[in-house]
Structure formats: structure tokens, C-alpha cells
Amino acid sequence: MTAIPRLLRVYLALMILFALTAGFAYLPLGRFNVVVALAIAAAKATLIGMDFMELRTEKRLTWLFAGAGLFWLAILFTLSLSDYATRGWLPWGSRFGP
Amino acid sequence: MPDLAHQFQDLEQQRTADTLGMWAFLATEMMLFGAMFLGYTVYRWHYPRAFYLGAQRTDMVLGSLNTALLLTSSLSMALGVHFQRARHFGRVALCLGVTALLGAGFLALKLLEYWHHYQEGLAPGLNFHFPGPEASQVALFFVFYFVMTGLHAVHMTIGLGLVGFQTARAYRAESRLMPVTLTGLYWHFVDVIWVFLYPLFYLGGRS
Amino acid sequence: MSPVSYLEDGTTVRSWLLSTDHKRIAILYMVSITLFFLVGGAAATLIRLELATPQPDLVSADTYNKLFSLHGVVMVWFFLIPSIPTVIGNFVLPLMLGARDLAFPRLNLFSWYLYLVGGLFTGVMMIKGGVDTGWTFYTPFSSMFSNTHVVLTVVGVFIVGFSSILTGLNFIVTTHKLRAPGLTWSRLPLFVWSLYATSVIMLLATPVLAMTLILLAVERIFRVGIFDPGLGGDPLLFQHLFWFYSHPAVYIMILPGMGVVSELIGCFSRKRVYGYKFVAGSSLAIAFFGFLVWGHHMFVAGQSVYAGLVFAFLSYMVAVPSAVKVFNWTATLRQGSIHLDTPMLYALGFIGLFTMGGLTGLFLAALAIDVHVHDTYFVISHFHYIMVGGMVSAYLGGIHYWWPKMSGRMYPELLGKLSALTLFIGFNLTFFPQYLLGFLGMPRRYHVYPPEFQVLNVLSTAGASILAVGYLLPLFYLLWSLRYGKRAPENPWHATGLEWQTPSPPPTDNFETVPIVTQEAYAYPVEEPHA
To answer: Is C376 helix (H, G, I), strand (E, B) or coil?
Structure first.
């Protein structure tokens, strides 16, 4: 029955991260607010995935399936945002917004 | 072996197939939510100020309370799977019951929040009034807020149905490991989505 | 005594509609996609008739818009995307793997019902007056301005999308977990490889379309500005999300066709498919590269020029694995003992038409040429060569090839050859003139055109009527063969592959004992006298 203490420790870590992220939100860090918030969110997601969803003990194939979602998401983001990032580089061409 | 479906050779093959199927489904779900995260990113990038103003108007207290509820529900879900493995049906029923209650609490608070936003005139398309020149861009923030948390709430409702069903089966000592495990995977995944929605919609406008 | 065949295992309507047998579900799909093919085909017929003359004499501009939109929506989502995977794939995948069924048989049946519900929405949309946005639903026209039934259509497509996701999920898990003992990945038939690659796209691209359609519906219903530039939105975001699905969707349509053709070429050349590993790997490569090229639909839409450059370059990359396939097929033919049966005729037609369609795709991937031919009949012709010339040829080739297994009957060979030939001639006559029209500047989606384009348009319409014969002929003689065809032996083509080791038609459980695989796919004897 070592599993229960481990689950409780993970839960404790999650709640601490939750408190941290809520607290950090009130500090005036400028653009780093969102960086910190997303980093903490990623840490929480990793904990949930590894321990609650038991990825830690799953086979490589399961990892491949879980990773595929993330990888394709990265494709979607990278290529779409590469358009938005370079749209203003030329004096002509389209932009949006005011 | 009553649990073995005819297309499988043995229980181990069936177990791994079921797990893979669930993970494949979760990969699909990642892409489903991911498309909206992309939309959010693009507009936040272009209208940082409007998204800041919008995030100030979300309810930090209810949002944080809901985060705590969901994280706790994930713990009880994980414990439920653990007890199912040991076939302690009474404890399984208890853990899953708690999970369902916390989930229902989450949805109730979410509805309350929606109602408040509607009354405050922050519901684009129904009742939206925002002072200043950035009104239509703040409206964009709230469109994403409602669509993303709304889709999350739909997933929560489905999850609630699944967990409720498994609770009833555990109560009658009829629950089986795979259905409970798969329900758990789904529940945790929906929790992970919220883990990202929380900073994007609640924390943005606090500093 | 041999076990009852799947066709005789229950004869009530209920035993069909509630069957979880992958073979019966394949037949259910075959019937339903054929119906939708006829609907889409009827719309195409009216379009070609209208275009026979430069004036608007058959239908009004509005009706014309609704016709090509209906044609696109029905053909893309209710015929092309489900066609080979749900009919042929459903039927032969478990047989090829030596399995008793797919990994999730009930989910498979559920997919079919989702398909039906999606189809129902589309039917209601059609009866209530149609939709005029084209199959691409570009915003803000679709969300803010169109006065037709956009939401109904979008809901239908959304639902049928989930049908396709669940099919993909089922195929992937089945391929991973239900292979017979000894059936290693390097021994899998190439059709299985292509279905696997297709399923990856279905699983990872379709949800993005689903979300995009939700956003479109929200914008339309609540009049908020997600994609409307007037309210701060970006219409190009819609196009990014839409094409993230819809470009890979083209590979959902063509990859299974390539898999079928690999089977046919191997079987009717009596040879091991040349470069097996490369053909298998190129399926995965196409599926992957297919995700990196969607921006070539947006060259002139206002996308950044730099992104355009990157997308143009990446688009050329898809040509590499596609060419690998074509070269390997032709290398397989070399010194093979070629049998020109009907399925082989379709396969050879596929290679020619696909090559044409693929090469003209390179024109369109080139930024500078695309500016000239964008949204012209050149594009129309290009993708019809791939999807109709390629995909439908492969589908019909596959149907003829596995028909003995599915129905237990042989089709009339002479009529089969005739229909394959009719299709090839009719298709080229319909669509080759459209390349010329496009290059001369005739834009797509108009019901009128300058009189100097009439000769080519009349040729195209004439070709379409021949093409229609090529489609209707198999419909009639295949149905005829169900009753009057010769009884099929277990393995009429002397093909390798586990599906040919079961009786025709197979029993419900497919195999009495689990087969054990000891050799690679396409292990045809090296020297075989010409039959």
C-alpha cells in the first residue's frame, strides 16, 4: 500500500503549485506573468499525467500515443504562428487589428 | 472468461487494446482543444490589452475554488482506481462518489459564474456592454472564455455521467477494472484541460 | 461441415442494423456511401449541363452556388473520406490481420450510425434549400452573410467527422494489437500500412475541423466576431484551421487508394512489390508531410509571404514519397507476369491519372504559378485527377478485386473491363479540357463564362456523360452478379494474403483457427507460367 501515500504526495504538490500560480498572478512581472503561469500549468499537467494517469508505468507505445497529440499540436502552432509572426515584415500585405 | 470479448485472444491483449484506444481518443481531444488554444493565442497576441481587461472581469474566487475542486476530484478518482485494483468495492464506491460530487459542485459553480457574467453584461451575442474603444476585442476574449470553458463543461458533464455509472456499479460490487481505469483517464484529462484554462482566463488580469 | 457465411448468419433487417460484424458494417457503409455518391453525382451532372453553354440557361446563379456546394460537401465528407476505409478497410483489415473482428466492434457500428445522423442533417439541409458557401465554408461569408443553411450543414459535417475519428481509432488499435502470430510489421500487406497512415490523419486532423466548425457556428448564431474582420477577427485564422484538416484530408482520400493499388499491382504482376519497405514508409511519410503544407491553399489569401515560401517548399516535399510509390509500382510491373483482369485495369488507370494529378499539383505548389492559376479550373482539374481519377479508380478496382470475397460471386469480367476503360476515357475527356480552361483563366464557381471557352466546356460535358456510364455500369452488373454471378472460389486471383484463405464469403468469425504467418506479404512464386 505504498501507492496511497504517493498519490497523496502528488496531490499535495498539485495544491502547492496551485497556490503558487494564484499568488504569482498578483505580482507585476509584465510579460513573465503568463510565462510563469504556463510553466506551472505544464508542471501540474505533467504530475497528473505521470502519476494519476499512470504514464510513469505505461509502455512506450502508450507514450507514443500521448506524445503524438502534443507533437501534432506543436505543428499546428508552429506553422500557423509563423504566418502571424512574419505578416508585418513587409510594408505591404495584410495585417489585422486596428 | 465472461469478460473477454470474442475478437481478443486473452485478457492482457484486451487490456492493452482498451488502454491504447483511450489514449488515442485523448490525443484527438488534445487536438480538439488545441485548435481553440491556437485561436486564443493569436488574438491575445494581437490584442494584449483587451485580453488583460477581459481577464480582470472573470471571477478569481469561483475560478480558484473550481480549480481546487477539480484537483481534489482527480485525487479521489486516482484513489478509486487504486482500490478497484484491490477490489475494495466499498471504497471504490466512496471515492468515485466523492469524485462525482466534486464534479457536480464544479459545474454548479460554473453555471453560477456564467449567470453572473450574463447579468454584468459580459455575454457576447446575448448581453454585452463594455465601455471604451476596445469593446469588440474584449468581446473576443469572452467569446473564447465561453466557448472554451463551455466545451470543458460539456466534457465534465459527460465525465460526470461516466463516473456516476461506475459509482453505481461499484456500489453493487459489479465494477470492473478496465472501465474504471478508462473513466479515470478521461476524468484526469479533462482536469488537465482546466489546469490550462485557469491561468489563461483567470490569472491574466490580476497583476 | 463448414460454418455459416456472414451473409447467411441472420437474415432479418435487425440482424443487419444491429450487427457488430465488421463485414456486415462494411456492407452497410457500401450501401450508404453509394447513395451519397449518387446525390453528389446528380449535382455534378446539373453543373456540367449548365456549363454546356456560356449563358445561364438551366439554373440561376443562386442555384448553381448551391449545386457546387452540395456536390463538394457530399462528395468530400460523405463519399471520398469514408469510401475505401469504411467499406474495403472495414471488410478486409481484420481478415488481412488474421483477426476475428476490429478491436472495438460496437464502436464500429456506432461510427456508422454517426455517419447516418450526419447524413440526415445534410439531407434536411438539402430539402430545406441547400447551402451556398462551397464545401470550404470560408468566413465571414459563411458566418455573417450567407442566407442559406450553413449551421445545418456544419452540424452534419461535424457529426460525420466524429464517425471518421472513431473509425481511425479503431483501425489504429486493431493494427497494433490484433495481428496474428508471426504477422510482424514488415510482413503486413501494404494496404494495412496505408490504412494505418490514413487513420493517423483521421485521428489527429479531424478534431481541428470539428473545433473550427463549432467556432463558425458560434459566430453565425451569436453574431460575434471570431473570424469577422469587422469585429476584430481574422478570416485567415479560419483558413489556417480549416486547411490544417482539409489538406491532410486529401491524403485521407488518396492514401487508402494507394494501398489498394499496391495490392492489385502485386497480385496481377505475380510479383513481390518492388521496394516493399519504401512503399510502406512512404505512406507514413505522406501522412506526416501532408500536415506541413496546408498554407499552399492560402498563397493569395493574405498570408505572410514568408510563410508562403515555407509552405511552398514543404509542399514539394510531399512529391518525394508520392513519386517513390509510382516508381515502385512501375518497377513491380517490370518483368512481371501481368494479368489484365478488371482490377488491374483500374490500378493501371490509377497510376496514370494520379501521376497527372500529382504533377500538376507541383504547378500549384509553386508560389508564382499559383498566383496565376489560383481558383481557376486548373485547380478543379488537378484535384479531380487525384480524387476522382485516382481515388474512385482505386475504389472500384478494390471493389472488383474483393467482390468475390464480399459477395461470394464473380462479376462479369467483360463488362468489368469495359467499365474500367469507359471510366478512364470519360474521365480524361471530362477533366483534361479543364486544365486548359484554367490555364486560359476560367475561374471556378461561376455559372456563366465568355463564349470563347465553350468548345472546351462542351468537350468536358460530353466526357462527363461517358464518365457517368462508367460509374453506372458497375452498379448494375455488380447487383446483377449477386444473383446470377458465378459462385466464387476461395481465392479466384491466386493472391497471397490471409483474406484469401477463408471461404468466400467468410464465416462470421473469419477464421476457424487463428492463422500463423510464416512469410512476407506478396510471396508469389518466382517463375509462374502465364495462366
So the answer is: strand
